[in-house]
Specification:
13% helix, alpha+beta, 4 helices, single chain, two-stranded antiparallel sheet
């Protein structure tokens, strides 16, 4: 295991201007991190005005590195991850300081095991609906009606990330959902919606939303061996509902077509397969794999 990351400044990548002022460089500690998450959850976007009427930059937000199999801080529920084979990671694309965006329907963005969902959806439903306070907080964080949590979860698709992905995650603390920025490790089991967006992290039952703007915070937590800030991906929802996702079979490295909203029981070979081998495709963000590796 690698040692924890130092709290070093990251240059913001959002197109709002230059880097923000330095913050305290203290090492990560439990109390300090809890405070950071609270600030992340409560901070509002945009800029304010100082006493002299000059714009004030929005505060930086730290980004938690969440390893695939670890529940992480403030889980909503126990893990509902099934013991499936971990998928391979696709070749790295061109480097750059700004996180790449990949369409949620990009073939090979996700993986899984044929006819087996990466998460136990029914157990996730049971764990949440059995606790009214948690169900309420989960529904609020997910943007769904409290009474519709079970049906909404059953409409999601269990898959496994094949990239490190930036998200807004939510922890459960004091009866409320607290938002924080996070990077999920490749190999993380998630439930995705019909637009290909990750919506639940199954290791802790955490609601997921699109990431906030990069405000130049620091990475906190323990990095995994393959972590590279230049290869972090943001999943962009598709413009319309997709009927299925083309994912990589982690068992034999072949393509699978998985109907969205299914648990894998209807998995089949795609009628038209991508033109490259799953382990050789470079994800290019256009919705189709790039067979020549040019990104």
């Amino acid at each position: 295991m690698r040692s924890p990351l130092r709290r070093t400044r990251r240059t913001p990548t959002a197109p709002h201007g230059g880097a923000t002022a330095p913050r305290d460089g203290a090492r990560l500690a439990g109390a300090a991190f809890a405070s950071a998450l609270l600030l992340a959850g409560c901070s509002s976007g945009g800029t304010g005005a100082g006493s002299a009427g000059r714009p004030v930059a929005a505060p930086a937000q730290d980004v938690l590195l969440q390893a695939a199999a670890v529940p992480g801080p403030d889980p909503f529920t126990a893990s509902t991850v099934r013991n499936t084979v971990r998928p391979s990671t696709p070749p790295g694309a061109s480097e750059g300081r700004q996180a790449r965006e990949l369409d949620g329907a990009t073939p090979g963005l996700y993986g899984g095991t044929r006819a087996v969902g990466s998460c136990d959806v029914e157990r996730q439903v049971s764990l949440l609906t059995g606790d009214a306070k948690k169900a309420r907080a989960f529904a609020e964080a997910s943007g769904v009606p409290e009474a519709g949590v079970a049906a909404w979860l059953r409409g999601l698709t269990p898959v496994v990330l094949r990239v490190d992905a930036r998200v807004t995650a939510h922890g459960y603390r004091g009866g409320r959902a607290e938002a924080h920025q996070a990077v999920l490790e490749s190999g993380t089991a998630v439930l995705v919606d019909q637009y290909g967006s990750p919506r639940v992290r199954c290791a802790g039952g955490n609601p997921l939303r699109a990431p906030g703007a990069d405000r130049g915070g620091v990475y906190v937590g323990v990095p995994w061996d393959a972590f590279d800030p230049d290869h972090v991906v943001v999943v962009r929802p598709t413009g319309a509902v997709v009927a299925s996702l083309v994912i990589v079979n982690a068992t034999d490295r072949t393509w699978i077509e998985r109907r969205t909203g299914s648990d894998g029981e209807e998995d089949r070979k795609p009628a038209v397969e991508p033109s490259c081998d799953p382990d050789a495709c470079t994800l290019d963000g256009s919705g189709t794999p790039d067979p020549d590796g040019s990104g």
